[in-house]
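Morning!

This is the sequence you dropped in the shared folder:
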Amino acid sequence: MNAIKQFINGTIAALCLLSPSMVLAESVTSNEYQAVVSTAYNYVNGLANADQKMLANSLDLKFGDVKMLKINKESHKETIRTVSLTEFVGFFKEATKDTWQAKVISVDIVDDKMAMVKLDFETPKTYYTDYLVMYKRDNNWRIINKTFIAKKKI
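The structure's back. Tokens below.
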């Protein structure tokens, strides 16, 4: 088994020496990257601060929705609940006194018109992973869909 590992490691090392371009990739960043990331962070800050103006600027309240996993208390079956972004924003009427920490994990931008952002954030009680789908319309990035998982801290 060690001979196989040595062979594989040696082959990979030789390929890296012969053709470094096979291993290294050039980073390509869209001109829209910073605007997309700012929209994601404005969304989190808007929620934490119950800032309705900030939320209205980061969410497409006319067309957007939120999808979340729910467990039926009686049957214990998982279902998916969908609420409009307008309804979702209504849950955040007061600023939190807690500190929320957010981090953009990945950004995928297509044709400078659509983006997918993976965002991790946590509150003192819960870890969240959000997938935020955005469209750029009227020269502004807005979240059109939020799908997330929430995991309570123990």
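Headline: The first strand starts at residue 65 and ends at 71.

More detail when I'm at my desk.
O.
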